Structures are given as C-alpha cells and as structure tokens.
Amino acid sequence: MVTFQSLDAQDKQLVVTDNARVLCKPPQEDLTSLSPCNHEEADSQLLLHVTHAAKHGHNKILIRTVDTDVVALGVMVDRTLSDQNELWLAFGTGKHYSYMYLAAHELAVCLGPEKARAISMF
Q1: Please, what sign has the CA dihedral across residues 100, 105, 110, 111?
Q2: Rounded distance between C-alpha atoms, residue 14 and residue 23, angstroms
Q3: Do the Cβ atoms of 21 and 36 come closer than 8 Å?
C-alpha cells in the first residue's frame, strides 16, 4: 500500500487536501493558490489542483474520475492552460478498474473556445 509518507518518486508530485489544509509531497513552498482549501465541491477543488500543477511546471496532468461533471469541467479548464499542457481524464468505473483515457486538451480544441467554455453549463 502506498502512503503519503512513502511517496518519493522524483518525477511525480502528490497534492491532497485534508479539510482546509493542503498537503504536498515533495513539499512545496508556494501553496497560496490552494490553501486554505474552502471549496465545498470536490469538482472545483480538482480544477484548482489542475491550474496549480500547470502553473508549477507539470505539463501532463491526469485526473481519475467516475463523474461526468468532472469530464465537462476538465474540458472547460483546459482552455485556461497553455498549449504545452496536456490534461488527461481517466474516466470509468468497474470491478477491474476499466478506464477510458480522454484527452481533455484535444476535446477542447475540437469543440473550440466558445463551446469548451460553455460545456460546464450542461
């Protein structure tokens, strides 16, 4: 079992929230865009984490979800990231962890800026 304390991958970063606190491994000095975390909905917390990760040099970001709202929000938030960022969504459920990998960055380009921004309204 992987625990927060045992995570030591050099090229990975884990950021989680614990109530209003934000925990980061490896530690980061600048968590001002995330902390204190006072969002009630996990969906909006995910978007903050995505923009924070992109701002701090992570070019490939993956969100694993079973919620279609998160897929729509992922496509919407991708338009706010730079063209060098790739936002991937592992979407699905199942006993055998069957996920479909969706490229939110490609979906946003196909939809165009207006539709990508508006997708979260549906």
Answers
A1: positive
A2: 8
A3: yes
